[in-house]
Amino acid sequence: MKFRHELAQQLRVDSIRAADAAGSGHPTSSMSAADLMAALLDGHLRLDFDQPKDPRNDHLVFSKGHASPLLYSCFKAAGAIDDAELLTFREFGSRLEGHPTPALPWVDVATGSLGQGLPVGVGLALTAAKLDTLGNRVWVLCGDSEMAEGSIWEAFEHAAHYRLDNVVALVDVNRLGQTGETMHGWDLKAYSDRARAIGWHTVEVDDGHDPERIEAALNEAEATRGRPTAVVARTRKGKGVSEVEDLPGKHGKPLQDPTAAIEELGGTRELRVKVNPPETVGDPHTFATAYEPPPVFEVGDTAATRKAYGQGLRALGSRRGEVVALDGEVSNSTHSEQFREAHPQRYFEMYIAEQQMLATTVGMQARGWIPFASTFAAFLSRAYDFIRMAAVSRAALNLMGSHAGVAIGEDGPSQMALEDLAAMRAVHGSTVLYPCDANQTVGLLEPMADREGICYLRASRGATPVIYGPDEDFPIGGAKTVRQGEHVTLVAAGVTLHEALDAAERLAEEGIRARVVDLYSIKPIDIETLRLAAEETDGLVTVEDHWPEGGLGDAVLAALAEAGASVPVTKLAVTEMPGSGKPAELLAQAGIDSAAITRAARELVPSSGTR
Fold first, then answer.
1. Following DSSP, what letter does each residue of 359-421 receive, concatenated?
2. Which of 146, 204, 349, 354 is catalytic?
3. Which pLDDT tens digit goes with each residue over 466-507?
4. 354 is catalytic
5. 3-state class percentages of the chain: helix first, strand second, coil last, to nearest 5
């Protein structure tokens, strides 16, 4: 155990050195967990640092991502990085960012937004247990401050429900948060009692700096079967340095006298720890496939795009065994239940826990699976920080939000997503799609599966007319001019595309020839089609079942600005808080139905109806 003590001291010293070189960072938060990490590296973690993509590797997730100096010091101790790189911590261009990201090959996902690492770790553990089936383990270092996050307890619930004995949460109870003492201080039972009530095995370590007690706890965790384990360890923030140990006001700061602190810890060391390689053998499990053609909907019929999503996803899952589906306990509304019925081993019920659903998709895609997660579009907002952080993780995943806009009708505004297009457009590298009919919906699913980044598909509750044949191509970044005209252009997507087509018929009766553009790809956007419309017609009317801020209309305006086009644009969107009612009543009240579009278009065209 002497080696582990010395290794822990080295991890503390290197955390101090890294933060001092950067002039910022969280050395005290790193120092409290150094003994836990020394024990994990020396005998428990199984990870081949030379083969970071080996599917048999254990996963190490720092849920307390601000303790990145400790993580990077661990990488140095394992020989994965050298001392020179360690001291580039937080420098411009360094892989050692302020909080961990997959810029480093041994980091599966970005952390640092507290409450996310354990949920993603549970997603990785679920993937290992149910998809890869390789028997590897997921180790998650949690801070006690983040235990106040609801997402942490969603993770506890799901790990227990799925009986994930391959995930271990190491809870570093150092009692001090950023501004003072945490909610429960050093009350280990406050954490372990809750975890046990949910179904976890727990081990309380009253001295989280004692190598023998830590070793016993980790052995117990590895021996536990049928349920996950939480090791709840009492530690001291800034352990080993009198300047900062267990003192408030020292969070997130380099030490004032790092030289004295390093001397107090016994000086610098150059220890190397041999991290054990994976024990398991074999390759990740794969699922058998069989050709199932995409569903076909007859032109002229009506069908809900959410229903087409379910049928199309089922067929895609038959053809491609790496596709998996998750849902937030609304699968009979999103129609992902059709995937579940056909591919039960690749379907995961996440219940009313949207944060855990998103975290699980991030974990699954980190292992090469292609997840499609669905729920009501309004409820994805609860998991928005997970979506934002998924982009930081460079994740590739697919989201479907159904029941969008006032067109859902009687359910009322609590169920109406009116912010989703803006929110999803704002995510770095995202793709935002809004199909108007069933065949278009089906045609977008495979391109989504093959695309990098976060893809969002907005689906509608009600049935809409099928206007496209099954062989039509819908490239991401494209648009469809579904009606030609030279007087005015109507730009819409989804539900309002059909209102725009009806408006074009009304305008034709007045001698106004309206062009209708189906902007099914809102991001990336078809700038060229919009530029031509601006050049060839007197003005554009954009119409969306969404608030006016950040949605389709703003996407069009940004595209026209990029193209250098100058043209009158009338933006129609929902501006007043809706209530319950029939879809037609609510579209009319919002001023986004065919009558409102007709009025707006008429005002953009000279009274003669000619250019």
1. HHHHHHHHTT-EEEEEEEHHHHGGGHHHHHHHHHTT--EEEEEESBSGGG-TT-GGG-BSSHH
2. 354
3. 999 999 999 999 999 999 999 999 999 999 999 999 999 999
4. yes
5. 40, 15, 45
